[in-house]
Write a structure and sequence with these properties.
It contains 15 helices and five strands. It is α/β, with parallel strands linked by helices. It has two domains: 167 residues, 3-Layer(aba) Sandwich (Rossmann fold); 101 residues. A five-stranded parallel beta sheet has the order 2-3-4-1-5. 38% of the residues are buried.
């Protein structure tokens, strides 16, 4: 495993580890898709591998895949490691939160001595998903941490966490990746993609590798092309926006619809950078309205067809059309 663009966070953790004064809880904060969960997994593995041996010959928080501890964790069979995340229901959908039962089950990890080394590690991805009672149960563990146990708490919105949880953690901020890091990360993650496709994905993802990979998996290029056509040429007869709305109203289109809502503001922002004068002002106004529509629609469970049509009208306004079409 490799992590890109987070050298400052890696250095902070490795320095703390080398000092022998490793904090028992680390809050990994930042936008989605910038490597927080990967950092947590890699740091846990490196700590457990170094403690158990043989010595790790790799930079930063990396651990070779053939290390015995790496193989155990990859197989999900390391007795001193736990990863908490949302479980799936009977239909295979993710549940809304991490349940208090999952947190309480950590007691089994702490009730016995570590098996492979003096250390134990827990990753919670993400702590934002803990329901209230589960957060309180975790707080008790952070207040009286077991010896030689390290917690990595992934958070996309640390300001919403209990202040008492935040106060018991050392915070590491992982920010959006710069262009060079995005290029390297996408070259490794999408080796079969063309360079132009990787550049396009990077320009839309705002420094988030996770978002770029989601866009690639959902094949958003046709939607992007349609949106760009509306934004540059308009849609006087409503044909393009009707086509867009119909394609996103299908029952199977849920993930693409959600991604499209995120994608449109980025498309408008990219277009605004190449415009000037009145056209740029129209694009900036459209950017604000698109962001608002994209934020409100999921929260209020608005009809996807109507929302997609509305966003099509916002896109057409960049070309100088009134929002009504």
């Amino acid at each position: 495993m490799r992590i890109f663009g987070q050298d400052r966070a890696v250095q902070a953790f490795t320095t703390a580890r080398a000092s022998g004064a490793l904090h028992h809880a680390w809050l990994l904060a930042g936008p989605r898709g910038v490597g927080k969960a990967l950092f947590a997994d890699m740091a846990s593995l490196r700590l457990l591998a170094e403690a158990a041996g043989p010595p790790v010959e790799a930079p930063g928080i990396e651990t070779p895949d053939d290390h015995p501890i790496a193989r155990l964790i990859a197989a999900g069979s390391h007795p001193d490691f736990r990863r908490l995340e949302r479980e799936t229901n009977d239909k295979g959908d993710l549940k809304r939160s991490i349940a208090i039962r999952q947190v309480r089950e950590l007691g089994g990890l702490f009730s016995v001595a570590p098996s492979m080394s003096p250390w134990r590690a827990v990753v919670i991805d993400s702590i934002d998903d803990l329901e209230g009672p589960a957060a309180n149960a975790l707080l008790k563990m952070l207040e009286e941490p077991p010896a030689n146990c390290i917690f990595f708490l992934v958070s996309h919105a640390p300001g919403r966490l209990l202040p008492t949880i935040r106060s018991r953690c050392r915070r590491l901020d992982l920010g959006p990746l710069d262009d060079a890091a995005m290029t390297s990360a996408l070259q490794e993650a999408l080796p079969d993609a063309t360079e132009s496709d990787r550049i396009r994905l990077a320009s839309l993802a705002g420094g988030s590798v996770g978002k770029a990979l989601a866009y690639a998996e959902l094949d958003l290029a046709p939607l992007e092309n349609e949106a760009m056509a509306i934004m540059r040429s308009g849609d006087r007869d409503n044909g393009r926006r009707s086509k867009l709305a119909s394609s996103l109203s299908l029952k199977t289109a849920g993930p693409r619809y959600a991604a499209f809502l995120e994608l449109v503001p980025a498309l408008i922002a990219r277009e605004a950078r190449r415009l000037d004068g009145a056209a740029r002002h129209r694009a900036l106004d459209a950017y604000g309205r698109a962001r608002e529509a994209a934020a409100i629609a999921p929260r209020l469970s608005l009809d996807p067809t109507a929302t997609a049509f509305q966003i099509g009208s916002i896109l057409a306004s960049v070309a100088g059309e009134e929002q009504g079409g």
